[in-house]
């Protein structure tokens, strides 16, 4: 996970997200639709939808797009149903990779994900082949300029988080995914500034990869993330920051 997170940071610095705004909008709308379908169209009663709308607004998505996504999710607009699915496999260096997707055509998505794995030195596995290496966790990041470590710890304990980690960009509250909504609701009720909140898959053990294996697994992750139907990609690779910078400079 650490390698994946560092690579994501480098890509943001390079401005890749702006170049792919259309793809970002597609992924955000699908998350809004799925959240509304599962938990209803009222953001106040649906934490997942609330987060999806916040992410869409942060990406400057037009309000009409957000509204259409919600209406499609609750069945007020016609269209093919969007379903959630996951893919599991291995990349270069034995890296375990877990892919979350939302699709209206499972055959198309499976074909695209399989092609990405096979073309970039990986292997798509059966369901359950790597999922056991990851744990679903709730992560809520409090911006560093909004509080201090002691107060962040107090807020985390009050809200029901299991741990609080000090990071360069803020204080990360970690909780079981089943209590995520409760923790988030408590923080919002306290009007606590929140930088980011998400359910994520955390690897239980990291695999160190270097050289061509590191380059290969990052290319595979990037290819998977670039697929329209893929929402998130998780990997248990551990890559040194210096090596990430080297790979990034080569790609520039």
CATH topology of the largest domain, by name, is Alpha-Beta Plaits
Percent of residues in beta strands: 15-25%
Helix/strand class: alpha+beta
Distance between the terminal alpha carbons, to the nearest Å? Answer: 23 Å
Overview features:
alpha+beta; Alpha-Beta Plaits; four-stranded antiparallel beta sheet; 10 helices
Give a short summary of the structure.
The protein is of the alpha+beta class. Helix content is 48%, strand content 24%.
Notes on the structure:
- The protein is of the alpha+beta class.
- The protein folds into 3 domains: 59 residues, Integrase, N-terminal zinc-binding domain (Arc Repressor Mutant, subunit A); 82 residues, Alpha-Beta Plaits (2-Layer Sandwich), CATH 3.30.70.980; 71 residues, Alpha-Beta Plaits, CATH 3.30.70.
- The chain contains 10 helices and 10 strands.
- The strands form 3 sheets. It has a 4-stranded antiparallel β-sheet with strand order 3-1-2-9. A 4-stranded antiparallel β-sheet has the order 5-6-4-7, covered by helices on one side.
- Helix 3 packs antiparallel against helix 4, helix 3 packs parallel to helix 5 and helix 7 crosses helix 8.
- The two termini are 23 Å apart.
């Amino acid at each position: 996970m650490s390698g994946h997170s560092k690579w994501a940071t480098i890509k943001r610095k390079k401005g890749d997200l702006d170049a792919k705004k259309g793809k970002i909008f597609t992924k955000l709308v699908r998350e809004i639709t799925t959240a509304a379908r599962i938990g209803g169209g009222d953001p106040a009663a649906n934490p997942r939808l609330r987060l999806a709308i916040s992410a869409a607004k942060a990406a400057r998505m037009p309000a009409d797009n957000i509204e259409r996504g919600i209406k499609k999710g609750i069945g007020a607009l016609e269209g093919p149903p969007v379903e959630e699915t996951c893919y599991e496999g291995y990349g270069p260096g034995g890296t375990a990779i877990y892919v979350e997707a939302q699709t209206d055509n499972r055959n198309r998505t499976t074909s695209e994900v399989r092609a990405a794995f096979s073309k970039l030195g990986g292997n798509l596995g059966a369901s359950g082949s790597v999922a056991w290496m990851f744990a679903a966790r709730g992560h809520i990041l409090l911006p560093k300029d909004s509080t201090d470590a002691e107060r962040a710890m107090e807020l985390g304990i009050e809200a029901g988080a299991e741990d609080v980690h000090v990071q360069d960009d803020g204080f990360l509250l970690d909780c079981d995914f089943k209590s995520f909504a409760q923790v988030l609701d408590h923080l919002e009720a306290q009007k606590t500034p929140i930088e980011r909140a998400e359910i994520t898959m955390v690897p239980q053990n990291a695999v160190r990869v270097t050289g061509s294996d590191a380059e290969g697994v990052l290319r595979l992750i990037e290819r998977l993330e670039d697929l329209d139907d893929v929402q998130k990609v998780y990997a248990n690779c551990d890559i040194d920051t210096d090596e990430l910078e080297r790979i990034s400079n080569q790609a520039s």
